[in-house]
Amino acid sequence: MSNIPLAERMRPVDFSNYIGQTHLIGENSVLRKMLDSGNINSMIFWGPPGVGKTTLANIISQKLQRPFFSLSAVNSGVKEVRDVIEKAKAKHFFNSPSPILFIDEIHRFSKSQQDSLLNAVEKGTVVLIGATTENPSFEVITPLLSRCQVYILKSLETDDLLKLLNVAITTDIELKNIKFTIEETDALFRFSGGDARKLLNIIELLVNTYKDNVIINNKNVIEVLQQNIATYDKNGEMHYDIISAFIKSIRGSDPNAAVYYLARMLAAGEDIKFIARRIIISAAEDIGLANPNALLLATNCFDAINVIGMPESRILLSETVTYLATSPKSNSTYLAIDKALETVQKTGDLPVPLHLRNAPTKLMKNIGYGKDYKYAHNYENNFVESEFLPDKISGNVFYEPQNNTKEKEIKSFLSLRWRGKYGYDLF
After folding, report:
1. Mind spelling out the 3-state secondary structure of 44-56?
2. 3-state secondary structure of 230
3. Residue 323: exposed, middle, or buried by beta-carbon count in 10 A (0-12, 13-18, 19+)?
4. Within this chain, do residues 85 and 51 fall inside the same structural domain, yes or no?
5. Number of domains within the chain
6. Residues 44 and 110 both lie in one domain
7. What are phi and psi of 69, to 5 degrees?
8. pLDDT at 92 exceeding the cut of 80
């Protein structure tokens, strides 16, 4: 048997066997047209693991027949970047096309490392292709980001996973000699999570377990994964499972579990800025108005870790995580904005009531803009009942206070002012 993992054996070498991302590489897509022209600009591929970012970079270099240099941000510093740029210069003669420099996990590059790339990208010494699982607007410095086109890669759909499964078992040099019986694929695709590498890892585990007669069904997939979770999650693929458990532990008010998963991430070398951003999101989504100080503390934590760095930042993160986990919880504002967005989607751009419109010109005043608007500060308790929503959705309730101390106060405030208009009766 081959020592090369199935995922590596199945890595596409051209667009003909590349599965997924048709919005990028399908016929008449912007990226495909650019590649067909033979001219490319620097770009960043942003998407979850296992969707083909590295493979796409390799295919591009092969298609354009350009020198290809590759770095991983995990184990490369400024010195390695400069060395590669010097090698690229040596390959770049007169009017020859620029070599391609691929940087995996570019979000892990520090500002100084990214700065060291700028000059080479600006002068065309290299065409940069970066790959990241994180939002590049947070992690890539503005001067570099402005010189790159960002392309978003999506998790593979069920049809893509099914196609990959069939291609693997019928064309791979080893799998095509094995008998496969596909009874059901629900568990296989669910645990793959739109990740091609995970799908192929699971298939490989099934083959290692059942040898020459592999039956793919939910029971077999679950059993094999329970027995081989370490193999299945090799190369840090538990990243998203751990962060999910971390957030759910905070939401579930379990500080012990939350700090444990924080420790798991820190021990694995997770980017502390990634952790801190997720903490901010949790503070807003899961704690919200039940304890507004949580968002302030989470935001301050993010600012502080950028100044302090590791290992001391572990203490700041632990304090913030424990505070969030032990805070009262409310997702009322999260639900409110989603409900409001759903209403906007259904009703479109409803006209703003005339009395709320600004009237900077005489014509606008003459047609009723701003007429009868009541200035709240001129009334007792700085409040006067008025209509603020468009007529068509008058009385719609988006924000519903939940049953916690802070929001009981908010509900009392709203009940006294709106006298039942929005159903804000006291608890």
Report:
1. EEECCCCCCHHHH
2. helix
3. buried
4. yes
5. 4
6. yes
7. -120, 145
8. no
* Domain containing residue 380: CATH number: 1.10.3710
Residue ranges making up the domain that contains 367: 347-418
Q: Which of 152, 163, 215, 171 is nearest to 192 (CA)?
A: 163
* Together in a domain, 126 and 64: yes
Question: What SS3 state is found at 215?
Answer: strand
**Paired strand residues for 127:** 100
Q: What CATH number is associated with residue 199?
A: 1.10.8
The reply to whether 169 falls in a domain is yes
What's the CA dihedral at 417, 421, 422, 427 to 10 degrees? 70
Category of 38 on φ-ψ map: left (φ > 0), alpha (ψ -120 to 50) or beta:
left
Please tell me whether residues 25 and 142 are part of one structural domain. yes
Tell me what the pLDDT averaged over the chain comes to: 87
**pTM confidence score:** 0.59
Cα–Cα dist 255/249, whole Å: 7
Beta strands in 303-409 (DSSP E): none
Q: Which amino acid is at 304?
A: A
How many Cβ atoms from other residues are within 10 Å of residue 335's Cβ?
16
Look at residue 427 in the predicted model and tell me its pLDDT.
Answer: 46
* DSSP secondary structure of 9-53: HT--SSGGG--S-HHHHSTT-HHHHHHHHT----EEEE--TTSSH
| 382 located within any domain | yes
Which residue among 101, 135, 152 closes a domain?
A: 152
In a domain, 16, yes or no: no
Residues 337-356 have pLDDT tens digits of 999 999 998 888 888 888 87
Q: Could you tell me if 329 and 290 are in contact, meaning their C-beta atoms sit under 8 angstroms apart?
A: yes
Closest to 168 in 3D by CA, of 142, 192, 136, 134: 192
CA 10 to chain centre: 26
Give bridge partners of residue 71 from the DSSP assignment: 103
> Based on the domain organization, do 115 and 147 belong to the same domain?
yes
Domain boundary among the residues 198, 219, 236 is at 236
Report how far apart, in Å, the C-alpha atoms of 77 and of each of 58, 81, 85 are. 22, 6, 13
